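Following up on my earlier thread - several people asked me to post the actual chain instead of describing it. Fair enough. Here it is, all 184 residues.
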Amino acid sequence: MLQFPHQSLKFLNPQKIVEQLALQLGMQVADFGCGAGDFVVSAAEIVGAEGKVSAIDIQDSALSSAKSKARMEGVLNIDFIKADLETANSSNLSDGSQDAVLLTNILHQVGDKNAIMKECFRVLKNGGIAAVVDWKKDAVFGPIKDTRLSVEDVKQLAQKHNFTFQKEIDAGVYHFGIIFAKAS
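Reply from S.P.:
Thanks for posting it. Predicted structure:
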């Protein structure tokens, strides 16, 4: 019997993915479209009390879930921000303030992918990383296939916004993962 999981952990292993990003103590990390907070908590644990994670989502329910998860895990170094990331400067993060931005399962959901990438570029420090994790175009499960981007589509989108491809990472059976750096 085939079942859809109620948590993304069945499809994704946030801790395993975040460990591949080479985050370090004291870093500033933003999670664009944080959802239930699985990646937020994993990143916050790695950057420690000296670091900060900004959990950003447009949905109150997602932010509420992320806050609850952080409380249950005892993680306190997270700011929760409600924002429409398709609107310029909506994250309220300072220019060049972030060491890393996570874009997990967000690009297939938004209409203006360019706006998301512009905001990502704006908030990243020179040399900072953008980590894109999203549904594989041919995955059996997931959102409507017409909304999904291929790895090449994402690479072209990132290059258009002055990101440099760094490497692909293991994001599981149904997702791809790509790390880009902000070109200085």
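The longest helix spans residues 60-73. That should answer part of your original question.
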